[in-house]
Write a structure and sequence with these properties.
76 residues, Rossmann fold
């Protein structure tokens, strides 16, 4: 199942990380720096658990600036 999450602040990134443990998740954001950090396994926010999951877990998570890429084929 593909899930799109709009925004990668505290709420959006927390949801994206949680859901990407069992589902394909595409996180949409407008800030290129945040997208690049997430795609490189680095959290753009200070949160010990998110930092650990991005660094150590095998997540089905991709961040993008492209809304079409994020929403195309998303079920939720």
């Amino acid at each position: 199942m593909k899930i799109a999450v709009a925004g990668t602040g505290y709420v959006g990134l927390s949801l994206a990380v949680l859901l990407s443990q069992n589902h394909e998740v595409v996180a949409l954001d407008i800030l290129e720096e945040k997208v690049n950090l997430i795609n490189n396994g680095i959290s753009p926010i200070t949160d010990r658990d998110i930092e650990k999951f991005l660094k150590e877990e095998s997540l089905q998570l991709k961040a993008t600036l492209d809304k079409e890429e994020a929403y195309k084929g998303a079920e939720y």
